[in-house]
Please model this.
Amino acid sequence: MNVPAQLNRLTEDYQKSDAAHHIHAFVDQKALNAEGPRVMVRGEGLYLWDSEGKRYLDGMSGLWCTQLGYGRRDLTAAAATQMDQLAYYNMFFHTTHPAVIELSELLFSLLPGHYSHVIYTNSGSEANEVLIRTVRRYWQVVGQPQKKIMIGRWNGYHGSTLAASALGGMKFMHEMGGLIPDVAHIDEPYWYAHGGELTPAEFGRRCALQLEEKILELGAENVAGFIAEPFQGAGGMIFPPESYWPEIQRICRQYDVLLCADEVIGGFGRTGEWFAHQHFGFEPDTLSIAKGLTSGYLPMGGLVLSKRMADALVEHGGVFAHGLTYSGHPVAAAVALANLKALRDEGIVRQVKDDTGPYLQKILQEVFGGHPMIGEIQGTGLLAALQFAEDKTTRKRFDNENDLAWQCRTFGFEEGVIIRSTLGRMIMAPALVATRAELDELVEKTRIAVDRTARIAGKL
Ligand code: PXG
Model:
């Protein structure tokens, strides 16, 4: 595999320059500078190559986003054609363009019928920023302006900007830059860690009832919406028990609280359904989308609104005081359109549901079902988490589970596979175009990394 000429600099040269100028995401920059980041230079299908020529099977679709894998010429062609035709135009001057119109048409043909409008953004964080303003605006328009409070979940992740990180429940993020007013949190439905003696079903209901308690504590007349990921992504790929979502939906309806699903990771086929809420069987009022919308080829996100909300805003809301320079960017829209067409016309989402998804779950059970290090396997479609456990019968987790998971991830890199570690869980979310052979390789290399970790932990 040839590395393009402009990338033919020494790795240390890149690393030195990167260290001099760049603050990376979620790292101790000083420690990273000492270690030197891997310089990724090429991607094709599920594979990545670094500047040393080492090849990796990307088990994380970049950051849960490259649904179609790398190097799709139809997406790059869509971008080039759109750039030639109309590289940019805005949505402010009573103007629009065909790319964004066709994208919306296709998007709503894929969504359940009770959604009707979308507000485009450049990212998932922005989608959730817009969510707060839109939800509050909705309640103003329908005559309940005091309904302002958003409830999120501890350990949820909704983005890195100020309001999005406040909606999320990562306390170490709140400590950097603070919170915003009128946001509250309830516990995450992480049975393996917090379920104690309760059955998953009892625990799921208990966690959902916390929402009711919080709404009553704050006053239903003050609560605007509840936001959650259908399954928790960055916080550990945690599936709630089956009893959770029906109860949450009941509570939101009973107290007239908008149910806001963050589909940034779960959307666009990850679970084998187009959207994760369809897999879990509930009906949100809003959907935050990003990532898989463009397969990560260009930044784009959005906030999808139910017809009920959109009708109120459009018919009675007057001027909607929001807009980004790049809302509905034509090139991003053209890429998103090509991406969604490919996911639909090549039957990729269906294949995840009927073939590759069940296959991945089956081989994970075969390889890790009896593994001494793994206490639980959660997943569906092309999405899975392996929970490390010190004692499987009592669900005792390792005291140093974070370190062990990080070590496992590092072993993965050494073995040529990229999997993600978080809180004692190893996560995989490969591109939706993965073949059975690639899934075999993903699981086999992950097994080697987990075995090496198990040796360190004294489990093998
Ligand atoms: N909502 C959810 C559910 C996400 O997972 C965002 C919003 C924010 O999207 P943007 O496009 O603003 O990043 C995300 C992002 C990880 C990881 O390590 C996950 C995300 C971002 C970075 C790292 O799992 N998800």
